Amino acid sequence: MTLTVDTTRTWVGPTAPERLVLLRAAKSIAIVGASENQARASFFVSTYLLSSSPYDVYFINPRAKEILGHPVYPSLDALPVVPDVVDVFRRHDDLPSVLDEVLALRDAKGGSTSPSVLWLQLGSWHEDVARRAEAAGLSVVMDRCVKIEHARFHGGLHLAGFDTGVISSRRQIRA
């Protein structure tokens, strides 16, 4: 007997220009599932956002107390602000409960304006969560890294060893 997994993706997320608009409009990002473990993707993203972006960054992890010198909050509702973007580093099965927490936060603190974006990191894809979030008025980005997208739009991918694809007539200075 062969097990067949349906990998068909029917949900369509925002285009690159739409993602740029979302990132430009944001002032704050909460990283749900932030880790103090330097080998974790959330740590790399946190480091980049703190050093190379204009965002106020908040960390959510019920077990950590401090990451990169910043306080860590046990949940979204414990934040002192309502973030514009909720960037999620959690297992697939946890995504519906994270959305529930985002929606509860909107109802309790922010009304219908914040958070405005639910961002699921590389490898995260949950169409039911995306549809529920959009029905509630959230923009949704799935299976994309906020660090890579920010760097891509701001010419910073070369810092991570990526070819930015920028063509310029300027002579490159060689060290």
From TrEMBL:
Q: Where in this chain does the record put each CoA-binding domain?
A: 22-124
Q: Where is the signal peptide?
A: none
Q: Which Pfam family, any one of them, does this sequence belong to?
A: CoA_binding_2
* SUPFAM superfamilies per UniProt: NAD(P)-binding Rossmann-fold domains
Q: Which regions span the lipid bilayer?
A: none
Q: Which PANTHER family match?
A: COA-BINDING DOMAIN-CONTAINING PROTEIN (PTHR33303:SF2), CYTOPLASMIC PROTEIN-RELATED (PTHR33303)
Spell out the protein name for this chain: CoA-binding domain-containing protein
What organism is the protein native to? Quadrisphaera granulorum
